[in-house]
UniProtKB/TrEMBL annotation:
Signal peptide: none
Segments of this protein annotated with the region Disordered: 293-341
Name of the protein this chain belongs to: Protein NDRG3-like
Record-stated family: Belongs to the NDRG family.
Biased composition (Polar residues): 332-341
Positions with biased composition (Low complexity): 293-310
Species annotation: Cyprinus carpio (Common carp)
Amino acid sequence: MRGTPKGNRPVILTYHDIGLNHKSCFNTLFNFEDMMEITQHFAVVHVDAPGQQEGAPPFPTGYQYPTMDELAEMLPSVLTQLKVNSVIGIGVGAGAYILTCFALNQPSLVEGLVLINVDPCAEGWIDWAASKLTGWTSNLVDIVMAHHFSTEELTDNQELIQTYRLHIAQDINQDNLALFCGSYNARQDLGIERPVVGLNENTVKTLTCPSLLVVGDTSPAVEAVVSFQVECNSRLNPTKTTLLKMADCGGLPQVVQPGKLAEAFKYFVQGMGYRTHILISLSHLTVPAAGMTRLSRSRSSSSSITSTDGSRNRNMNSPLDGPNSGVLDNQGRPQTMEVSC
């Protein structure tokens, strides 16, 4: 089966946010040249939430959409069917929440997580919007757009905004989207706590794998991700957590600044013990192309990184155009598996 990893390499497993699917959420990132070079060494599995793929038929009347917990519980059977032993997860928004829940329930299956715009708490953005808008489905596109983009982005980046507004309104079944949004809005607090050595490190509920938290500095999710006193970063193991706050970036960093995210992902997998020798220019320095070797596992130190340099614009096609992935094996064949739960 194409996409099945060789040896003990994990598979890159992606999960999209509400209003998107794997194409609109991840195409730009995985089609970016630097990311394509990285993923030559990994198979990739993209997961679409039920009914969110393009052209999906509506669910029958009375259909009970899975909860966030149930969506996470579907993933082990998917990996078993694909004969995948472990993954590095990349999730955005609702997808980040689902992958976090999956990692908490199945820590042996998850080697690392890249969580973009993750909010582990129960309160949702729809609570505020629903109290001010009537006609759930008719206003759903505006609600989802406000979830993805800041007020500044909605005003200043008209081309991107128009692309995603049309995609959300025309390509995603609106009834199915409303069900997915309702499930995300009804999510439970994950109850993650920071382990304290000598006190609760063996009993506390927390992520045991290295985690990279990513958020744009103008993202609607920035407060939930960055706030050290209340939200996600304060709850995770500081020895295994890195926070990447991207400057001049809004709610979709994987779309707006794929170069920065690809660079961060490269260092993340290196910290996990996978050395990537690929051609990436860093401050006018070039790392020669070669292969990837497995290193001994090393702990990732906690850090907070603010990205300030501009990303390059190579392979910057429309986020909704182009192939589904840039993953190639040695013969140049696609190594991407798409799964709709």
